[in-house]
Amino acid sequence: MILSRTYFVRSHREWADSALLDLDDLEFLKMARQRRIGGGDASAYDLAATAFHELGRTQAFRRRTVASAVDARRFRLLRIDHLPNVADFVPDERPALADGELSVAFMGNLAYHANLDSLQFLLEEIMPRVRVAQPEARLTVIGGNAPDGYFDQCPSWVEATGFVDDLQTELARHSVFAAPVRYGSGTKTKLLSSFAAGLPVVTSPEGANGFSFDGSEVVVADGADAFASAVLRALGSRQCREELASSAFRYLVREHSLSSFAGRLDTLLA
Q1: For the residues of 16-59, what is the DSSP string, one character each?
Q2: Which residues pair with 20 in a beta bridge?
Q3: Is the pTM of this model over 0.90?
Q4: Which of 83, 116, 134 is the last residue of a domain?
Q5: Cα–Cα dist 183/201, whole Å
Q6: Residue 150's CB: how many other CB atoms inside 10 A?
Q7: Do 99 and 175 form a contact (C-beta atoms < 8 A)?
Q8: pLDDT at 140 over 80
Q9: pLDDT value at 237 more than 80
Q10: Residue 34, by phi and psi: left (phi above 0), alpha (psi -120 to 50) or beta?
Q11: 10-14, 60-64, 115-119, 256-260: which has the minimum mean pLDDT?
């Protein structure tokens, strides 16, 4: 039996001896990273209580897993294993790169504070730097639940699509995917969606955290200047985009396809 996250711990403790508890990501780590950049309103007590709930009260379970390889290594003494997220969709072949305008894509549910923080950083700090060097560059924001009026004052080079019915098709029409994540936990599945769409990715150290990357799958850039420079390099070189997209797609199939997930799960449940 597999249970997801800690919501079920109190009501299903009787299954602990036979169940695998998938913690997915660890909320207390997200809270700690948000506090480090001066965000959020969680107190030190809130952080400690959440860590105790996630790590302490779940120890009775036969197996516990997290999506992040980094978190699994960090808490290996607590018998927490690595079970990567499975991608929603993995095509048989990598989609071709988009041609045409210099378009950067961002994706996220904007009701989630970490996504809104990333978007604000992209809009205010990164894209203006990109457009100084490349005035034709545009940004598309994919995802709904933005605060009322959020996009009313945005410049003309910003397009907000809201939620879309066909995410892969929408992503595939862009040149680069930007994920300047500043805090969070677990692994960022938006990167997997971008890999599946054949879209090269520029992300932050936090955005890449938890994945088993070898350095060829994404460009990792820290800070607005470095991030903007990385986006510009990708926009300016089709070869760079091809190499990133090809390596990322191979990684997606190897590490996050349904078949690879099933193999790891069989091993954990054996």
Answers
A1: TTT-EEEEES-HHHHHHHHHHTT-----HHHHHHHHIIIIITTT
A2: 2, 63
A3: no
A4: 83
A5: 18
A6: 16
A7: no
A8: yes
A9: yes
A10: alpha
A11: 10-14
Question: Tens digit of pLDDT for each residue in 5-38?
Answer: 555 555 555 666 667 788 777 878 878 888 877 7
**Domain count across the chain:** 2
144 and 184 both lie in a single domain = yes
Q: Tell me, yes or no, whether 200 and 70 share the same domain.
A: no
The DSSP element (H or E) to which 127 belongs, if any, is: helix 127-133
Cα torsion through 241, 246, 247, 253, rounded to 10: 140
| Residues 212/5/57/61 CA torsion (nearest 10 deg) | -80
* Residue 14 pLDDT: 61
DSSP 78: G
Q: Domain range holding 115? A: 103-255
Q: Where does 103-214 show beta strands of DSSP type E?
A: 103-107, 138-142, 158-162, 176-179, 201-203
Q: Rounded mean pLDDT of 225-236?
A: 97
